[in-house]
Amino acid sequence: MSRAATRVLALANQKGGVGKTTTAINLGTALAAVGERVLIIDLDPQGNASTGLGIEQRNRSTFDVLTGDATILEAKVATHVPRLSIVPATIDLMSFEREAGNASGKHYRFRDCLAELTASESVDERTTYVLIDCPPSLNLLTLNALAAADACLCPCQCEFFALEGLAQLLSTVEEIRVRLNPKLRIHGVVLTMYDQRTSLSDQVVEDVRAVLGEKVYTTVIPRNVRVAESPSHGKPVLLYDYKCSGSQAYIQLASEVIERERRIRAA
């Protein structure tokens, strides 16, 4: 990929339990494995992306970045995956909305922090992908992520209420595009937790593709026990079990993301 620009993708869905954090960790790992320099931003107060990458000690966090007490460069830490770093989260993030109050520009704090990062990085060391793991709600943290992002990547669980949740998210993205970030687009919808043993999963895949067409990635992430086990070991599934179906699916998803990026740049 050209080092001319850093691409910022927010992984968002107002519904919880759809695989946002799992996708952030494993898509980030797969992108790093093919040579991209990836930075994951953990914006969820639960800090699951940080724990899932084996980050225990968190001296600086996304809360410190958002409040101006640290830069992204000061807060980011390396992971066990070459070329993959993370700015970890702590429970302090829960107080961000109260801390921000009615301050002007509160929706753009993270955008400004990212601008400072890209201005300070050399061309050879520049981060090529920033993946923001959003909390499962439309709060000030999520608004900061969407205001800073080039595009939104939407994990969607293969279950009954999937289309309802997606409709809400697409409406939210359009509202943010109008109010806060004119460049924001839907990068793609990734269907997660697909269970080939059930007709329900097949029906959800069919319904989502019928409504959203090419916005849906071809890759479908299967329900896989190795994917579920890996966070307890502080590892992405690609390090925990490279050959399992979950790992192979995230490698395919990374290829799709890169291919869509190529088409965006060529347009």
From TrEMBL:
AAA domain location is 7-186
Q: Name one Pfam family in it.
A: AAA_31
Q: Which domain of life is it from?
A: Bacteria
Q: Where are the transmembrane segments?
A: none
| Function per UniProt | Involved in chromosome partition. Localize to both poles of the predivisional cell following completion of DNA replication.
PANTHER family hit by this protein: P-LOOP CONTAINING NUCLEOSIDE TRIPHOSPHATE HYDROLASE, PARA FAMILY PROTEIN CT_582
Protein name as annotated: Chromosome partitioning protein ParA
Organism of origin is Methyloceanibacter marginalis
